[in-house]
Give the backbone structure.
Amino acid sequence: MREEMFLIVQNDPQCPAGSCSRLLLSGGHPFATVAPYSDEPFPDPGALSGIIVLGGEMGVHDGAKHPHLIGVLSFIERAVRAGTPLLGICLGGQLLAHAAGGTVTSPSRHCEHGVCRVELTGEGMRDPLFQGVGNPLLTFQLHNDSFTVPPGATLLAGSSACPAQAFRLKNGVYGLQFHPEVDRAIVAAWDRLSTPPTDHLSGFIQAEAAFNAASHAVIANFISLAGASRRP
């Protein structure tokens, strides 16, 4: 049985863990954060109880410009082989899809920005990651790339704008296109960094209560699933 230790992989200094770290802290779950863009080393994925791979402005195919992504892909592949539960968010989900044999398109006609509704499939409604989450669920999106569901994976959610929003591999490994971790501060920062500046914050604030209810449930469900995987 693994000792409880979660790992957050932060791919971009402008894409922090937000609600992921707060929910881990409030639940008393020990965790560490690795910033591979600063050449921080990865631990053994087999020794971890759960991994969360965050988003980033770069894309899956930008390894030449952002060579740390090559290391992240290798780490994800090792984590999947080790059977460690993993939650890939936006770029993290795209990296997972690519590592598992899916296709990531950049740029994609399935891009989305701001608050969007996502429909769970029948499998998604039954999946423990979405337990207690309404259907449709309110999400925050900020992506110009998109993934296809990898071979052998199960589609859990989609939308009219982007048909592949969430998928499940074996052993509690999930890829998401949307951002359940964001909060007001993160959205405001992304608005300021956009060229030209955007205003996704006002729409986010209007939808904040419903967004938090759904997104915090998804993150908490993953934490619980990963914790359950430690039991003999």
